[in-house]
Amino acid sequence: MKAVFFGCTVFSEIILKELLKLKKVSISAVFSIPAEFSISYSKEKVRNTNFADLSSYARDLNIPFYWVDSEKGKRITDYGSILKEINPDVILVMGWYFMVPKKIREFAIYGAWGIHASLLPNYAGGAPLVWAMIEGEKRTGVTLFQLSDGVDDGDIIAQAEFPIEHHDTIKEVYEKATNTSIELLNDVFGKDINQIEVRAQDKSKIKVYPQRSPSDGEIDWNWPTEKIRNFIRAQTKPYPGAWTIINGKKVILWDATIIKNA
Q: Is the distance from CB of 55 to CB of 16 less than 8 angstroms?
C-alpha cells in the first residue's frame, strides 16, 4: 500500500518508524508542521509541546519531506500537485493539528485515515487523553477512522481500548495510547485492503472537546479533591503542568496525593 504520512509529534515519529517496518506499507512522502504555528482557534502562536522533527529522519531514508508552515504561507493545499503525482492509496494522519480538506483527501484512493486517542464518538476534538483523565475516566482507547469534513466524525475502521489506572499520569496514558495504536495498525495493515470494513459513527453522540493551552491549566480549589488530583496528573510532564497562584506567583504542580483525615 502506497501511503503519504502527515505527522508532527512524538507519537507521529514512533508510528512512522513502526509503519516503515511493515512490508505492506510504503511511505512515499512525509508532511509535518513546525514546533510553533498559527491556527484558527488561537489568537497567539501555538507551541507543540510534543513536537518531533521528522525532517532529518525522512531525508536519511530518502523519503521526500515537506513543511506545512502557516507562518511562511505554506498550507497543505499548496501541495496538491505533489500528492496528485504520488497518487497514494491512503494518506495517514498521525498526530496532526490542521483540518485535512476534502480536495486533499481525494488525492488518495482510500482517502485519509487518522488515529484519534479516544473511543469515538467519545472525546472527539482536542486533547482527548487529557480530557478523559480530567473527567475521571477509568478506560479509554484509540480509534482508526476515515477523515471527513467534520471534527473526528468519519467512519470507524478499527478501535482498541486500554485502562487508565489510578496511579497513571498523562505520560503513562500517552504511552498506552501509542502502544495500542501500533498494535491496531499492525492488525489492520496485516489484512488485505478489501477485507477492511468500516462503520459509520453515531454523530448524535459526538461531543467535540476544545484544544487546550497552558492557560487552561489553572486549578479551581473549589473542585472535589479527586477532580483536582485528576486535573494535575492529566497535565503533568511532558505537558506544561497544572498551576495556581500563591502570593502573587505562578506555581506549577506536577503531582498530588489525597490524604484523608484520620
A: no
Question: Among all chains, which residue has been given the C-alpha cell 498550507?
Answer: 75
Chain centroid, CA 92 distance in Å: 12
* Per-residue model confidence (pLDDT) at position 45: 85
Sequence-ordered alpha helix ranges (H) in the chain: 10-19, 55-60, 80-86, 102-105, 128-134, 170-189, 225-233
Find out whether the peptide bond into 88 is cis, omega within 30 degrees of 0: no
Q: What is the C-alpha separation between 29 and 111, in angstroms, rounded? A: 15
Which residues does residue 142 pair with via DSSP β-bridges, in sequence order? Answer: 160
| Phi, psi values for residue 46, rounded to 5° | -95, 135
The per-residue DSSP string of 170-182 comes to HHHHHHHHHHHHH
Q: Indicate whether 90 belongs to any domain.
A: yes
- CA 223/CA 166 separation, integer angstroms: 18
The answer as to whether 258 is a domain residue is no
Question: How does the average pLDDT of the chain come out, rounded?
Answer: 94
* Residue carrying the nine cell digits 479527586: 226
Same domain (yes/no): 160, 231: no
Per-residue pLDDT of 111-160, as tens digits, reads 999 999 999 999 999 999 999 999 999 999 999 999 999 999 999 999 99
Cell of 115: 488515529
**Total of domains in the chain:** 2
Q: What is the pLDDT confidence band of residue 72, given thresholds at 50, 70 and 90? A: confident
pLDDT confidence of residue 260:
83
Query: Which pTM does this prediction carry?
Result: 0.90
Indicate if 136 and 234 belong to the same structural domain.
no
**pLDDT score, position 262:** 55
Condensed to tens digits (0 to 9), the pLDDT of residues 196-209 reads 889 999 999 999 99
Outline where 140-224 has alpha helix (H): 170-189
